[in-house]
Amino acid sequence: MSTVQVAVFLAITGFIAFATYMHCRGKRGGTGDEKDYFLANGGLAWYFVAGSITLTNLSTDQLVSMNGNQMLLVAWWEFAAVVGLFILAFVFLPVYYKNNCTTTTELLQKKYGDKHIRALISVLFLAGNLFIFLPAILYGGSKFFLSMLGMDEPGTEFILFDMSKDTLKGLGLSGLVANILLFSVILAMIGAAYAIFGGLRAVAVSDTYSGVLILGLALLVVFLALRAVNFDLSGIPAERLTLIGDNDSDIPWHTLLTGMIFIQTFYWSTNQTITQRAMASPSIGEAQKGVLAAAGIRLMIVPLIVVVPGIVSYKLFGDVPQDGAYGRIVSEVLPLWLSGAFAAALFAAVLTTFNSILNASAALYVCDMHEAYVGKAKKVGRLGAIVSIVMSVFALALVPFFASQESLINTVQQLYGLLSMPILSAFIVGLAFRNVDARAAMIGVVVGVAFYGFWSMVWEPAHYIHGMAVTLILSVVTSLVMNRLVFGNTVEFAIGEDEPALSAT
User: What is the Cα–Cα distance from 318 to 325, expressed in whole angstroms?
Assistant: First the structure.
């Protein structure tokens, strides 16, 4: 990286940090309680909600891995996300606000009258964050920087690691993976600092400032990439330009009619990392405006930036392996000084996604587990910091696994199916029915985890997205059947009603 690139990178990164500090200075309440640290005392305006939701999701796992597929088909993840955001705005948010929830899982405790189901779902969320999302984000960010620098191929390792190849060999690491780990450590340290010292307000504000920068530059990359091929995509195989996936594609067309909508409902409406931003507004109306603005960005901007550069890179460079297409096209089309700006934007995107997940994870542990089974946290910030540090260290240890995967986005989605549909079943049963014993819902969750693991890793009778739909149905049915046969309760349909929950067991 040249002196110009480094100077621009440092200047922009420093500006975002300074702007975030100036906005948040003196705005933290003195209580240090959950609402303060995890929901910014309900003080997020709609534009910060929109910016934080957008950039929490939009990181290297979208820009790098979706473009890494080098095909139009993956845009369906973004189109379907719009539906998920509408469901959040008009179905789930009113319920969260009515029940004054700090975490999404708090709603489960209030609906079922049992703290154990809240803790179980929190454990699953934390497992997904620790074993899937955090290491995937660190790997994707590191991979982008290495590919942009032309250091993502064997033989291009840092001199530091060239001098210790014997040590690396003993650890079972290649020079490339060691480079990825080095970048990951840097990203984890800075990202954790935002989450630890600033709470949700700092995370959301930095998200928004970074979001404006990265969306603008990502659109510029789209334009410059298309100009590099004279806006001519001829010669690219038809299967890379279609939105109708066949049975052998990553997203067969029929999966859009089954599991895809459930995946989006889970991610945007029950996932603490996303909904926490919308739950931090002063009113439901303000929160809904932010969510709908995020949906507009998701519909009009995001699909372009996550597929077009990858498709153009196929025409220019052919099939680029292991998610390297985006970094390569960025280094090709951007002028030197702008590549430094874009590196800063991507750096910010990785940080904000990483620190958002850490903040949400801390909220889940502190509110749903520590206070339920240990006691009221006297210093929420300190306990949240411990959670963030521990999760960061474990996430770093898992980065080499993701470095071995062919497609980051497909690996993340497939793995998360172990948790997403069983978790969603607990919300559906709790909101759609009353008189359901929490233990029945917990059995449905455990059965769903086991069944999806068998479907996707052993049986594999159909696409994993179909498997998600089947898993959700099985989990819900299991919950209702166990509730009747084992616990002797007769359920009643209760959509739209705010009935009292069962007493805690």
Answer: 9
